[in-house]
Amino acid sequence: xxxxxxxxxxxxxxxxxxxxxxxxxxxxxxxxxxxxxxxxxxxxxxxxxxxxxxxxxxxxxxxxxxxxxxxxxxxxxxxxxxxxxxxxxx
Length: 90
Known about the structure:
The chain contains three helices and no strands. By secondary structure, it is mostly helical. It has a domain at 9-63. Helix 1 (9-22) packs across helix 2. The termini are far apart.
């Protein structure tokens, strides 16, 4: 896929400067920026979909954990007293 971008002179200079500092080509810098943006937006969409599914499940079943229950469980992560995920309840 061939794509062209119109980039203003100020941004071109900034990209060239950054590329020089990082010992990379301007092309690499721009591709990396686009890749990171796309990954971030895909992750954001995935998180939103997961939240919507969780909300729908809660509305259907009423089963949940309180914030306090979730924090208490998460605070055990990585410790000798690490616990399993608590059961959801109504």
